[in-house]
Amino acid sequence: MKRLVIATLNPGKVREFREAFREAGFEAVGLDSIEDGPPVEETGVTFEANARVKAEAYSQRTELPVLADDSGIEVDALGGAPGVQSARYGGPNLDDAARNRKLLGELRGVPAQRRTARFRCVLAVARAGRTLATFDGVVEGLVAEALQGTNGFGYDPLFFHPPTGGTFAELTPAEKQHWSHRGQAIAQFLRALREGDPRLAALAGSAVDAPRGWC
Fold first, then answer.
1. pLDDT class for 204, splitting at 50, 70, 90?
2. How do residues 94-131 score in pLDDT, each as one tens digit?
3. How remote is the C-alpha of 92 from its chain's centroid?
4. Distance between CA 67 and CA 58 in Å, rounded?
5. String of b and e for 130-143 (b: at least 16 CB within 10 Å)?
6. Active-site residue among 70, 95, 96, 156?
7. Architecture of 2-203 per CATH?
8. Would residue 32 show up in a list of annotated catalytic residues for this protein?
9. Mutual orientation of helices 181-194 and 11-22 as an angle, nearest 10°?
């Protein structure tokens, strides 16, 4: 089984990637699997820029390919915020629960029809300091008026997804993988591998099949 470093210390993200790539013949490992070093700062102003920065920097610390994602929630009533600042919304000392409370506070009194939002994700895969390709995904929804569900992480308990009738925190891992922004981006990456995308020649190996039920 080939190994792929996931450029994150977020255990929820590592878990999602590990499940996604297991059937595709990759062992997804976290940053703790490579030589320790200072964290790479997300200095970009777009999700793609941040994903590239992380993938390229961490891939210079290992011989393994590195996949980095940058993702977040864009709330229309807040002008697209928190956007690329989603993981740092309200300051570096807040945890997921505190960030969710802050977002609810910012939207206090905003009616349901104006609580439209989307999750956006960009993946960048790199080797030896060079980005090979990027893949993106987006899913539309609404910010709920209260936390719902205990699965997932981040803003999942607040992201109401009309097609499934619940928040992402109320979905099973398989359901979330199918519908989510990150799941869409991962599916594109796996499809590109399976179809022999020349951009991914550095990852050449046995054929990769996307897990059943994916986009």
1. low
2. 999 999 999 999 999 999 999 999 999 999 999 999 99
3. 19
4. 9
5. ebbbbbbbbbebbb
6. 70
7. Alpha-Beta Complex (3.90)
8. no
9. 40
